[in-house]
Amino acid sequence: MSEPFYTDKSRVRQAFERAAPAYDAAAVLQREVSDRMAERLDYIRHQPERILDAGSGTGYGSAMLKTRYPDSRILELDLAHAMLVTARQKVGDGEQGWLGKLLGKRPPTWQVCGDIEALPIASEAVDMVWSSLAIQWVNTPDATLTEFHRILRVGGLLMFATLGPDTLIELNRAFAGIDSHTHTNRFIDMHDVGDALVRAGFATPVMDMEKIVMTYNDLRGVMHDLKGIGAHNVTAGRKPGLMGKTAWQRLEANYETLRRNGKLPATYEVVYGHAWKPEIRPSRKLDDGSQIIEFMRPTRTA
Questions:
Q1: What pLDDT score was predicted for residue 296?
Q2: What is the pLDDT, as a whole number, of residue 292?
Q3: Mean pLDDT per segment of 10 residues, for the chain of length 302 residues?
């Protein structure tokens, strides 16, 4: 079943394929969020052997993970093949060449092109899932979190950042009354993400949120950045074709009313979270025959 707010996966892939060559120049927010996620790892005791970077893009997060966990094997996964190619080109062949092996360099990075809603990875294959600003692109977050839970080993850590419902609130307000089509992705509330984590089987979820405001000189700058990172509208309910001149002028006029201190704001509500895959105790039954399933707190906690 498709809904107007569902993303069109083929268009998502195409958008990121096209954005890959120039992605790093536009991905200011993505790098900032990844850095702030990494700071949260300072308070978590965990030494993963294998790490999945789910939605790895051009490899910014993976590079950080390699530095923090030099003995860990990193698996980069992205929906867009061009993103993986760009990441590989940035690294070069040094980590897999004969000289790198001779000198005992870090374990080579694996790469796979795939969808985080249906991971092409064996169950209980990794010790940590890292996902920075990828979950907001999925249509069924519950399926994605269930997949993350499936591939994690017991005691494994899920660390992620996604976008909340106040993301691009200014753009949504500017579009109000122009037409009935969708213009941005649907973003999920922090509390709903926390509930989905529990439904997926995760234990001790920790959630927090902050708002990051980017500023621009004009509306074209906002739209240019969204296109540059492959984040322009790819929902099923989008308006086909280009926006007409009259509609664009109305959109510009509406957005101008939000100008503050000489700049146009674009707000991103960033939701951070982490949770553990717990050990499941043997089920117990009550007198009426119903079962109790208990989840143990992992030994490696934040």
A1: 47
A2: 53
A3: 61 88 90 96 94 97 95 96 94 54 68 96 98 92 96 98 93 82 77 94 95 95 81 52 77 94 95 93 58 50 45
Query: 209 is written with which tokens?
Result: 């949120």
Angle between helices 9-19 and 81-91 (to 10 degrees): 30
- The pLDDT, as a whole number, for residue 103 is 46
> Which tokens hold the place of 125?
């294959």
Say how far apart CA 262 and CA 258 lie, in whole Å. Answer: 10
Amino acid letter at 138? V
| Number of neighbouring beta carbons within 10 Å of residue 32 | 14
- Measured CA to CA, the distance from residue 15 to residue 227 in angstroms comes to 8
Q: What is the pTM of this model?
A: 0.83
Q: Residues 127, 193, 3, 214: what is their CA dihedral angle, to the nearest 10 degrees? A: -100
Other C-beta atoms closer than 10 Å to the C-beta of 22 total 13
Question: Which amino acid makes up residue 210?
Answer: E
Cα–Cα distances (Å) from 83 to 13, 57, 89, in that order, read 10, 5, 10
Burial 227-255 (b: 16+ CB within 10 A, else e): bbbbbbbbbebbeeeebeeeeeebbeebb
Question: For strand 284-285 and strand 264-276, is the pairing parallel, antiparallel, or unpaired?
Answer: unpaired
pLDDT score recorded for residue 185: 75
Distance separating alpha carbons of residues 33 and 97, to the nearest angstrom: 32
Spell 92-128 as b/e; 16+ CB within 10 A means b.
Answer: eeeeeeeeeeeeeebebbebebebbbebebeeeebbb
The secondary structure element, H or E, covering residue 125 is none
